[in-house]
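Note to self: keep these together.
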Amino acid sequence: MNHRVITQFLCFVLVTVALFHALPVEAKRRGPPQIAPIFFDEWTIRVVREKTEQTQAIFVEARKADSPAAPVWRTELYQVKMDPLLETDVQEVPVTQLRLEGQTLKVRDSLGRAYKLDASSGRKLP
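Structure:
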């Protein structure tokens, strides 16, 4: 082969690699949405996610505002059993909505399931 052809081919490869290397890499999926806390009376109500290798548990908890003390109440909404053979991000079921209507907290997850809690006690409602 002639040196000119080899040189052109190597230049093409180097330019191609340089261009693709400079492109930003994006994750396959976005992380779970950030759910803003709700302020109710003197409490801050928020969604809490606890993950282990085997499970993901989703809670809603109320704490006194500006206090690191233990929660006033804490209610588990659901658990997801994690399969170690699958990627974690495709198994997670994050909360997508938390809102307050009167005394009722309304929560929705990424599968479209809806939950209702009494905002004063954290008790699940039908």
